[in-house]
Every structure is written in C-alpha cells, then in structure tokens.
C-alpha cells in the first residue's frame, strides 16, 4: 500500500479520533479529580496517594480505566485491518461500532445508569469481534 493511500485510510482517521477520545478520558478524569482535590494536589508530586472520594470523579476514573482495557485491542485490530487492505469494509463498520459505543458509554457511566451502560459496553465488544472476524477471515 502506498503511503498516500494509507494516509487517507478511513481506518487511520478513526484511529486518530480514538486517540482524541483517549485524551478526553484522561482530561475528564484530571479535571474532576482536580476539582475535588485542588490544583496544588494536581501540580504537586502526589506523594500522599490521595484519591478523589466524589462519585463523579470516581466514575470518570473507572470509565477511563475501562476504556484503556479495550483500547490496545482496538489499536491492534485497526492497524491489522489497514495492513490487510480492508480500510473501508466490515472492519471499518466494527471499528465505528466500537468507537461510537465507547463515546456513548462515557455519559452513561458518569450518570450512573446501569444495564444500558452494560449493553453499550457489549456493543463495543461486538465491534471488536467484527474487526477480529475480518482480520481472521
């Protein structure tokens, strides 16, 4: 695959968007933790290992950790699909499924909505399964 063709791959665009989503997770967690623990804690070395006690900051931390659990699989599968030459087929559908579900998961988790949140998480896993299927078959 030529460099120009791979640079314009929709999968690589989605991969870049996923990095923005990762940064959003980190930023959200940081802002909510700083709001609770203060800017001196944030700017300092954090040697005292304080954790936020508020529900929203805790949820932001857990949703970020949950995202980071599946993110390496998404990155690996997205790159495998680009290398396999399937930048716009079913693999891309699976990737979008994963991405949109991960996006929807954030407000559901922050709001403390059960069951629907779990269903959305399963949709994200279905996206990874579709991507895996395309890579294997």
Description:
By secondary structure, the chain is mainly α. Helices cover 80% and strands 0% of the residues. Helix 2 runs antiparallel to helix 4, helix 4 runs parallel beside helix 6 (116-136) and helix 5 runs antiparallel to helix 6. The two termini are 20 Å apart. The mean pLDDT is 91.
Key traits:
mainly alpha, 137 residues, single chain, elongated
Secondary-structure element series: HHHHHH
Major β-sheet annotation: none
**What overall form do the CA principal axes indicate?**
elongated
Mean pLDDT: 91
The total count of helices amounts to 6
Oligomer: single chain
Low-confidence stretches: none
How far from one another are the termini? 20 Å
Percent of residues in beta strands: under 5%
Instruction: Please compute the radius of gyration using only Cα atoms.
Output: 17 Å
Helical fraction equals: over 70%
How many β-strand runs?
0
Q: Provide the structure class.
A: mainly alpha
């Amino acid at each position: 695959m030529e460099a120009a063709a791979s640079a314009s791959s929709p999968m690589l665009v989605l991969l870049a968007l996923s990095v923005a989503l990762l940064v959003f997770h980190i930023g959200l967690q940081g802002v909510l933790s700083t709001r609770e623990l203060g800017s001196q804690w944030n700017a300092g070395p954090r040697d005292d290992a304080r954790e936020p006690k508020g529900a929203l900051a805790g949820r932001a931390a857990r949703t970020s950790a949950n995202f980071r659990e599946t993110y390496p699989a998404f990155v690996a599968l997205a790159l495998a699909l680009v290398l396999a030459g399937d930048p716009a087929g079913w693999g891309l559908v699976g990737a979008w499924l994963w991405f949109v579900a991960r996006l929807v998961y954030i407000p559901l988790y922050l709001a403390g909505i059960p069951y629907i949140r779990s269903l959305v998480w399963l949709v994200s896993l279905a996206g990874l399964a579709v991507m895996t299927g395309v890579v294997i078959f």
